[in-house]
Amino acid sequence: MKIKAMVLAATMVAVVIPASAAKKKHQDRGMLEKMEAVPCGAKERGLTGLGSIFASAGIQAVNSEEKLCPQYLLRTDDMEYHIRPKDKKHEVLLPIGKEGEFKIKKNLMYLKVVDGDKKMRPYQVVAINQLHTGESEQGAYRPSDRPERYRKPEQPGDKASDAMSTPPNQPPR
Predict the structure, then answer these.
(1) Distance CA 32, CA 71 (A)
(2) How far apart are CA 45 and CA 62, in angstroms?
(3) Would you tell me which of 19, 95, 111, 152 could form a disulfide with 102, CB atoms 3.0–4.6 Å apart?
(4) What angle do CA 111, 113, 118 make, to 5 degrees?
(5) DSSP the chain
(6) What does the pLDDT read at residue 127?
(7) What is the DSSP string of 77-99?
(8) Cα(99)–Cα(116) distance, rounded to whole angstroms?
């Protein structure tokens, strides 16, 4: 009887511990900094598909327009992602200055705006830039209007703060 109770208790513990440890992974977050309209191809109409058949007859009727696509800059603490919407026919404009949650699967980034409609949409990653290289943050872009909680406090022995404190007509210390 004692053995059955011990086996039952061990089974219950084995079932309960993995269930509590399997919490949902927190998604990465980033800020939508800016949007640009970039050329993403040309839209051609006319007889270009038949090519050599009509070229031999002297028919050349091609109308081309340059197509522009929105490209967004999504900035996290460590990386910058330049992304374009995957669905080019039904593009949804994203609000600039809002926070978004994303996850990357295979070769696509799935992004949803936290304050928006909360729908995950696929985006193509065009470029990735790393902000922090090693311990120095000189390559990182830090706007001056960033909230205080995101700013790094200046150290008294920091070269940048010492250079700023000396007048221009005096040599640095």
Answers:
(1) 11
(2) 6
(3) 111
(4) 90
(5) -HHHHHHHHHHHHHHHHHHHH-PPPPPEEEEEEEEEEEEEEEEEEESGGGTHHHHHHT---EEEEEEEEEEEEEE-SSEEEEEEES-SSS--PPPTT-EEEEEEETTEEEEEETTTT---EEEEEEEEEES-BTTB-TTS---TTS-GGGSPPPPTT-HHHHHHHS-TTS---
(6) 92
(7) SSEEEEEEES-SSS--PPPTT-E
(8) 10
Closest CA to 32 of 85, 78, 70, 73: 73
What angle is formed at CA 30 by the lines to CA 36 and CA 104, rounded to 5 degrees? 90
Percentage of the chain with pLDDT > 70? 52
State the average pLDDT for the chain: 74
* Dist. CA 79–CA 26, nearest whole Å: 17
pTM score of the predicted model? 0.54
Three-class secondary structure of residue 113 per DSSP: strand
123 and 86 Cβ atoms separated by less than 8 Å: yes
123, 111 contact by CB (below 8 A):
yes
Phi, psi of 20 (to 5 degrees): -80, -25
Tell me how far apart the alpha carbons of residues 113 and 30 are, in angstroms, rounded to a whole number.
Answer: 10
pLDDT for 83 beyond 60: yes
